[in-house]
Each structure stands twice: as C-alpha cells, then as structure tokens.
Amino acid sequence: MDYLEIIRTTTHYLLHFVAPFVVAYYFFNKNWKWAGVIMTSTILIDLDHLLASPIFDPSRCSIGFHPLHTIWALIVYILFLLIPSWKWRAVGLGLIIHFATDAIDCVMMSLW
Ligand SMILES: [Zn+2]
Question: How many angstroms separate the CA atoms of 106 and 14, rounded?
Fold first, then answer.
C-alpha cells in the first residue's frame, strides 16, 4: 500500500465516520449526538455490495454500480430531507454525505 492509498483510505473512513458528527453538530442542535449516530448508520446502504461479486473490490467505484448507490437512490435520499422530522432529515443528510464520500473516493481513485 503506497502513501496515496493510505491518504485515500483515511479520507474515506474519516468522511464515513467522523464527518456525520461534525455536520450533525452544526445542523441538529441538541439532537446532534443521535443525529450523528443515525447519519453514521447510513453506512448500512453498503449492504448492497453483498449483491455484487466480488463483494469488496477496493478499485471499484460504488457510485452507479450498486443499486443503493445510483442517481435514482440519491434522488430518494434528497426527498428524505423534505420529511418534517429531524430523524428522517438525519437519514437523508447521512445518505447524501455517504454518497458524496463514495464519489470523492471514485475521483481520488481515478486521479491516482
Ligand atoms: Zn457506500
């Protein structure tokens, strides 16, 4: 593993597990801790990788490949923001951050 791979992997997991809490802190006031937990839990959409073969391939771009990582899924995630409940908004925002995180990974992958 060269150092660019290490930067890419570190960025990816920081965005998956730390960024949701930072965003939650700014947008969810007193509910920020639970909002952070909900947003981090959106990693569960990666269960769609189980439908692929191989299940995990570090050189594959998730976006547009796995069913819950398509543009149609993203549209649904954005619609979650319209539900008047902070919990659903946390789900939507978490999913959008997850999507962006995976997209950034794809960009980094193509650069290196
Ligand atoms: Zn993903």
Answer: 16
Ligand 1 center to residue 82 CA distance, Å?
Answer: 22
Domain that holds residue 39: 3-111
- CA 36 – CA 56 distance, rounded (Å): 26
| DSSP single-letter state for residue 101 | H
CA-to-CA distance for 102 and 73, rounded, in angstroms?
14
Counted domains in the chain: 1
DSSP 59: T
pTM (2 decimals)? Answer: 0.92
pLDDT tens for 45-65 read 999 999 998 988 888 999 999
CA of 66 to the centre of ligand 1 (A): 8
